[in-house]
Design a protein that fits this description.
Layout: H1 3-9, H2 23-34, E1 46-51, H3 54-68, E2 79-85, H4 94-114, E3 117-121, H5 123-129, H6 132-136, E4 145-153
Antiparallel strand pairs: 1-2, 2-4, 3-4
Helix pairs in contact: 2-4, 3-5
Length: 174
């Protein structure tokens, strides 16, 4: 698949069959994460957690339900990859959040290429960070905080070309 085709077809898929991605596809998606750029090349400040264990997925879902009153915030995906970051500052900065988002975006683009459904996840991450018992299940290294994630799995929804309005984001040319 060509880059521009991949960009055009990438969309949030929120329906999963429960079937996990093939191991080769997941390895390719995880390699895409490793190829992402991060602020100032500080790769040691990022950590990936691949969650497949049903009990851990359920704990994360429960945290989201408790905080937001919504169920199934992972949409039944069998795999959830969480990007965590640590900062040299008192709190995470926009650079750390942006870098984590780029890592997730690389994984989502690779998922399109591999025919694996994906969806960016933010909300349940906020709930996870407010739920110490669920957070502990991630076994994160000290100092790391989950900042975003991506669900992965099989879906009956397929990626397909889509029309995109070339002016949907306002642009000023100077």
């Amino acid at each position: 698949m060509q880059t521009l085709e991949t960009l055009n077809q990438r969309t949030a898929i929120r329906t999963y069959t429960g079937e996990a991605p093939r191991e080769a596809a997941l390895a390719t998606i995880m390699q895409a994460a490793q190829e992402a750029p991060v602020a100032m090349g500080q790769f040691a400040n990022y950590h990936l957690t691949v969650v497949r264990e049903p009990a851990v997925l359920q704990a994360i879902e429960a945290a989201g339900t408790k905080q937001f009153g919504r169920e199934h915030m992972l949409y039944g995906a069998p795999v959830f990859v969480i990007v965590s970051a640590k900062s040299a500052h008192e709190a995470l900065t926009s650079a750390e959040y942006s870098s984590a988002a780029i890592i997730v975006h690389n994984m989502a683009l690779a998922a399109v290429d591999q025919g694996v459904a994906s969806c960016y996840i933010w909300g349940v991450i906020a709930a996870l960070n407010q739920t110490p018992e669920a957070l502990a299940k991630l076994q994160l290294p000290n100092g790391f905080t989950p900042v975003c994630g991506v669900t992965l799995g099989a879906s009956t929804q397929a990626y397909a070309p889509r029309p995109v309005n070339a002016a949907k984001i306002a642009t000023t040319q100077l």
